[in-house]
Design goal:
Number of strands: 0
Largest sheet: none
Distance between the termini: 135 Å
Length: 505
C-alpha cells in the first residue's frame, strides 16, 4: 500500500513536473513573440526614414529634369524662350506658387530642428518627423512646377503662368537646394552619421540656410531678369579689372631684360674673372627663359594690343547688357501702364453699342502686350548669350596667348584661331542684341535710331517694339564700337600669329 502510495505520489509528481515544463515553454514563446514584435516595430520606424529618403531622392531627380528654356511646348516663344505673361505685377497663380514655396521652406525650417534634437535622443521617435520634412520639400517642388507651367487659358491664347527662363532658373535652383539639404539630413540619420559629434547640427544649419535663401530669391519676371542682367554686368567689370592689372605690369620682355641686366652686373661685381663673366651670361640666359615672353604672368609687347582690343570688346559687352536692362525696363513700364488702364476700364460700366468696338480694341491691345513681353524675353536671352560669351572670351585672355592665337600649319593662316572665333562670336552676340533694340534692321545709322525710337502706338510695323531716343542712340553707338573693336582684335591676333611664324624660322 505504501509502495503504491509512493508510486502514486511519484506519478503525481511526474505530472506536476510535466505541467511545469509546458508552462515554461509557453513563456519562452511569448517572450520570443514580444521580441519579434519589438524588432518589427523598430524596423517599421526606421523604414519611415528610409522611405522618406527614397522619396526625397526621386523628388530631386524630378527637379533636376525641369527644362528652364521651355522646351518645345506650346508655351515656348518663337525666339526660343518661354512666353511671358507679366513683367512687374505678378498674376494670382504666380503669387500662389511662390506662397507654396514659402510655406514649404517654413515647414522645413520648423521641422528640421525638432527632427535633429529628437533624433539625437531617440532615432525611432525622430524618424516620425521625416514625413513632415518630405511634405515641406513637396510643397517647394510643387510651387516650382507651377512656375514651369506653359499652359494657356481657354478664353485666349495667352499663357496663364508665363514665367521667364530667369524666374524658372531661380525657382528650380532654390527648390533643389532645399531638397538636397533635407536629403543630406535624413540620410545622416539613416546611416547613423548624424549621431557623431555635431554632424546633425551642421546639416540642420545647412537646411536653414537653404530655406532662408529660398525666401530671399527674386520673384517674378522683372526681378529675376534684373538680377541676372546685373550679375552679368558685374562679371564684365570683374574681368576688365583683372586683366587691366596684368596690363599695368607692362611687357614681359622688357621687364625680363631689365632684371637680367641687374643680375649680370651683380655677378661681375662678385668675381671680375672669367668665371664671373660665364656666370653672368648663364644667369641672364636663365632669366630670359623664366621671365621671358609666354612663361610668366605678363604679356609680351606684341600681345598687349590684342588684350586691349579684347578688353574694349568686354566693355562693349557690359554696355550692351546695360542697354538690354534699360530697354526691358522701358518696354516693361509700357506693359504695366496698359495693364493698369485695362484694369481701371474693366471696372466701369459700358454701353451695349460700344462692346463690339471695345472687343476689337482689347484684341489689338492684347496683341501689342504680347509683342512687348516677347521683346523683353528675347532681349534677356540675347543678353544671356553676351554674358556667357564674355566669360568664354575672358578665359582665353590669360598669358601666354600663343596657344589661343596659334596659326595653322604653313606660311599663311588658313583657319581662324580659337581666340579669333570667340571674338567673332562675341561680336555677333552683341550685334544681335542691338539689332533687336534697333528694330532688327541690321544697320547702325540714324534711320534705325528713328525707327527704334518711334511711337509705340503706331502699329504700321507689326514686329517693331519702340524704345526711347536715348536708348536707341546708346545702342547704336555701342554697336558701332563693338564692330570696330572686334576688327582691331582680329587684326592684333593675326599679327601675333605672323610674329610667331617669323620666330620659328
Amino acid at each position: 500500500m505504501s509502495g503504491t502510495g509512493r508510486k502514486g505520489g511519484g506519478g503525481g509528481g511526474g505530472k506536476k513536473g510535466g505541467s511545469g515544463g509546458v508552462g515554461g515553454g509557453g513563456s519562452a514563446k511569448k517572450k520570443k513573440a514580444a521580441r519579434k514584435a519589438a524588432n518589427a516595430a523598430e524596423a517599421a520606424r526606421r523604414d519611415v526614414n528610409v522611405a522618406s529618403l527614397e522619396a526625397l531622392k526621386r523628388l530631386s531627380v524630378a527637379l533636376s529634369e525641369l527644362d528652364e528654356t521651355g522646351g518645345k511646348g506650346k508655351g515656348e516663344g518663337k525666339d526660343g524662350h518661354p512666353r511671358l505673361s507679366h513683367w512687374r505685377t505678378l498674376p494670382p497663380d504666380v503669387q500662389s506658387a511662390y506662397k507654396m514655396m514659402d510655406d514649404g521652406s517654413e515647414l522645413i525650417r520648423a521641422t528640421s530642428t525638432k527632427y535633429t534634437l529628437v533624433g539625437k535622443v531617440d532615432v525611432d521617435e525622430g524618424a516620425k518627423m521625416s514625413p513632415e520634412l518630405l511634405r515641406g520639400c513637396e510643397l517647394l517642388a510643387a510651387g516650382a512646377l507651377v512656375l514651369f507651367d506653359d499652359s494657356s487659358s481657354s478664353a485666349s491664347s495667352a499663357v496663364v503662368i508665363g514665367c521667364s527662363r530667369s524666374a524658372r532658373r531661380y525657382a528650380r535652383a532654390s527648390s533643389r537646394s532645399c531638397v538636397a539639404a533635407v536629403t543630406a539630413l535624413v540620410k545622416s540619420f539613416v546611416d547613423g552619421t548624424a549621431l557623431n559629434a555635431n554632424v546633425g547640427a551642421r546639416l540642420t544649419g545647412a537646411a536653414w540656410s537653404a530655406c532662408d535663401a529660398s525666401k530671399k530669391m527674386p520673384r517674378g519676371n522683372r526681378a529675376c531678369a534684373r538680377r541676372e542682367l546685373m550679375t552679368w554686368a558685374g562679371e564684365c567689370g570683374e574681368t576688365i579689372g583683372e586683366f587691366e592689372e596684368l596690363l599695368e605690369l607692362g611687357p614681359a620682355a622688357a621687364a625680363a631684360e631689365e632684371e637680367a641686366a641687374e643680375e649680370a652686373e651683380s655677378e661681375v661685381e662678385v668675381d671680375d674673372g672669367a668665371y664671373g663673366r660665364q656666370a653672368s651670361a648663364g644667369s641672364a640666359g636663365w632669366d630670359d627663359f623664366c621671365g621671358g615672353a609666354g612663361t610668366g604672368e605678363q604679356y609680351s609687347a606684341v600681345e598687349i594690343p590684342l588684350v586691349r582690343a579684347c578688353l574694349a570688346l568686354v566693355k562693349c559687352s557690359r554696355g550692351t547688357i546695360k542697354v538690354a536692362l534699360e530697354a526691358s525696363e522701358y518696354v516693361g513700364s509700357a506693359v504695366e501702364k496698359e495693364d493698369a488702364a485695362a484694369a481701371e476700364k474693366a471696372e466701369e460700366e459700358e454701353e451695349e453699342k460700344d462692346r463690339a468696338k471695345d472687343q476689337d480694341d482689347q484684341k489689338a491691345k492684347r496683341e501689342t502686350r504680347r509683342r512687348r513681353l516677347n521683346y523683353i524675353g528675347t532681349l534677356v536671352e540675347l543678353a544671356r548669350q553676351v554674358g556667357d560669351g564674355m566669360t568664354e572670351l575672358g578665359s582665353l585672355l590669360y598669358p601666354p596667348l600663343s596657344d589661343a592665337v596659334a596659326a595653322a600649319d604653313g606660311e599663311e593662316q588658313e583657319e581662324d584661331s580659337e581666340l579669333e572665333r570667340r571674338i567673332e562670336l562675341q561680336r555677333m552676340a552683341i550685334v544681335a542684341l542691338h539689332d533687336c533694340v534697333l528694330g532688327g534692321n541690321g544697320g547702325d545709322g540714324e534711320e534705325d535710331e528713328k525707327k527704334a525710337a518711334g511711337d509705340d502706338n503706331d502699329d504700321s510695323n507689326e514686329a517693331a517694339v519702340k524704345v526711347s531716343k536715348e536708348i536707341a542712340s546708346h545702342s547704336s553707338k555701342i554697336r558701332s564700337a563693338a564692330e570696330k573693336r572686334a576688327t582691331e582684335a582680329r587684326t592684333a591676333a593675326r599679327e601675333i600669329a605672323r610674329s610667331s611664324r617669323r620666330g620659328k624660322r
